[in-house]
## 1
Amino acid sequence: MTRSKRETERKYAAPSADDTSWLPELTGVDGIASVVERGIDELDAVYYDTEDLRLAGASATLRRRTGGADAGWHLKLPLSGDSREEVQAPLSDTVPDALRDLALSRTRGAQLTPLVRIRSTRRTWHLVDSDRAVLAELTVDSVRAESLRGTTTLAAWTEMEVELADDADPALLDLVDKALHRNGIDRADYPSKLARALEAIGLGGPRLPDARAERVEPGSAGDEVLTYLDEQVRALADLDPAVRRDRPDSVHKMRVTCRRLRSTLRSYRSVLARDVTDPIRDDLKWLGGELGAERDQEVLMERLGSRIGHEPPELVLGPVAARLKAWNVANTSAARERTLEALRSPRHLALLDSLATLTERPPLRRKAARKPKKVMVKAILKEYDRLADRTTHALELSPGTERDTALHEARKSAKKTRYATEPARASLGKHAKRLGKRVKAVQKVLGDHQDSVVARDALRNLALAAHAAAEPSFTWGLLYGKERAVAAERERELPDVWADASKRRLRKALVR
């Protein structure tokens, strides 16, 4: 059993554990009516990591802590800005399986062993408003750290932390920050106790990919492509625990990240060697496909549910809502299990390893060392020309199954073209961004068309099931007809949207 919470906090280098003369200065800051002391706790935490510090390298921490109000196992995962997510599990002698799974995208299956022991004597104050509601918690810790690997090395320091209450305004942190700065208290140089402990006891923090730094020329085409790949690989690791816990929209985001990675490795084959990247692309295609069942069901259910909800009651005949719900439960359950099986599989771990190796020791080709503009433009235009060919071919066909298939292929090309522009924005600037925006508009029209094709297939099956159960099938047929009308409308829109994306000036702007 786990529970999680969002932490929004900042750390400071406290002057000393005994000097609290500055505390009254916080009274009156953005509604803080008083500062209330809450006592002293003795905390004892053992931090775990892999041999090569993969969690620390990903700005994540795993600890077993006793003492205080939240004793137990804590896995902290990075979020944006000053925030992190802390997932908690009850105390046990070994790492809980649930936390081990949530850390898997960072550890990639490597063994977790004790790394550092950090003991803290913590004094706590609550910053409260006039109604005695807690706005933030301020703590001052006297910290003692020791290595649990090799020789016993000790370190000690004092630090302070301000953590917002769950429903507090994030702007309060900035105001408290200014008040502390006026009293000579500045932000800490380290993002966490563990980061400071690693430096202090000589473990030196996470190991950096020195081999890459030596090989990649700053500002080169290879540098820009790898910078983008770094972002997407981090996103994949971040989304993995969210998908495991069924967080809203997480499956969709992870699937899109797979597509971005696949497309980048395809479009920039002149930068990275295919003999290395093609197997990775195959694994990304597999993972995206496994996620696709769950994501496609989400999209389809949202679409059909919305369509039914907008129909007048007199046109909804029979147990339409009940049948749709039963259909969704059956399909969602199977799709969800398929997703989880994929994330538990050795192939997923192997993919994460391959991506880590790719970014740390990239298989650079000769063009990777060149200036980015020509390399990027050539890659984008190659995808763009393929999109043009497929769109033109689709528009020449008569409405029907063949045209539906051709439009779907054009949609996939639109995505690849759009994704090809994203790594190039640093060197091509607004021209790449503008082309990406126009192509996205094409993708959107084609996407709605394809969603209509998929929805019609589902509606036909629902109508057949309703008929077999002696239920009225009128509503399913009505919705089928409306989806055909939507598809026809998207087909009418496409020529104008495509004309806007295929203007010669967009192409010329890239090559100038």
## 2
Amino acid sequence: MTDVTRTKHGRPVHHWRRDLVELAALFTAVAVADGVANLIGHGPDGTALLMISAVVLVATAAFHTWWARHHGHAPPADHTGARPLPDGRGAGPSEDTSADPEAIAGVTTLWRMRTTVKDAPGSLAVLCAALAEHQVDILSLQTHPLAEGTVDEFLLRAPGELAAADMTRAVSLAGGTETWIERADAHDLVDAPTRVLGLATRTALDAAELPLALRQLLGRCTIRSLPARSPGSGRAEEGTPVEGALEDTVMRLRAPEGGVITVERPYLPFTPTEFARARALVELDARLGPRIPRNQDVLTLPEGNAISVRRADAADVEAAKAMHERCSPRTLSMRYHGPVGDADRYLNHLLSPRFGRTLAVQTASGRVVGLGHLLWDGDETEIALLVEDDWQRRGIGAELLGRLVAMAVEAGCDSVYAVTQASNTGMVAAMRGLGLPLDYQIEEGTLVITARLDTTPVSSGLPHDEEQRGERAVRD
């Protein structure tokens, strides 16, 4: 920075030394000009010397012009003195993209990776160094100790152009074995303790949340609940101890009601740490006992009648049986796809929070006139409806269906399916009314309609009672 560009109190600063140098240069130039004039005017070759000097000056100017055109690459400065930036970029810190692979790729990808390393000092450091060589950022790390070795679970941010095979190859060369990797999303950025506490809170509020909490805790897995061998005996499946059992890709946990909860994940073995977390959630559920949210929504039917929609559980079995007695054989056969006399025996299973969620529709007098079920069927989700004959074609089925689909979306389900008869035009119309992509499969008169939950479903088709709007409950 020169003296002229420095300022003090907003004014340029000049120094007397600079003025003295400029004055000396001026006197020197005058002396040189006087000497040249004397040489040309009084010397014998003054005219020739003047012509030679002119030729040399012209040649020098021409050479300078040629050099500037062929070797000058810097763009001209604007009136402010700042060099314009290429590609329309604004002024700011310069970026060396050659040293930043992410700047070249433009995007990054989140990955979840598990690998087993030797339980020896420095083994994890070698693994981390191998990932760093590929510009992979480690966002979180969990360790799962085993009898021999340690399973390390990583959440990684990698350059977009880096393939999963390249990462697994680098990990293998660094000593990792049995490596598994899959894409992650923003939900995986939540640390493990926070995730477990959130799942425990949901389980404490609603017994139907336990299968969902286990699925979110353990990833893609199949969860099945098996009842006790005899009703009321409380005896679990033979060979399953009270504290549960872990067998590689299968874990068995004692259900609070005396049955067994089986969790399978064929693509990735469970670790003792995961088994302990799952068992803690089941023990919490057992200590709290049966529970469901007791709030309800009050709705108004088109003809003006008020109904309420609420969660139902095993305490509503008798009311559901009474509704069966008022339903016609055709309505029951469309719902249960079998002998009408066997309808009642399904209710204990359907109304148990362990197998899903149930919504009940009741009149102002408290009589149940409709049931909607959202059932956890392994790693799939089924929807089923039953509306009493005298209350059909009033919008109750569509209301139940919309609420059940909304609950499925909140639970993280990718799709839901309904099994009915091809002649059940009411169920087909209700599914189409959701406005979701539908797939149809027909086999021997049985129709399976699968709705892909890609968009926000219709949650309600009936108006809420204005007097009860303040008591409107959360749908789940």
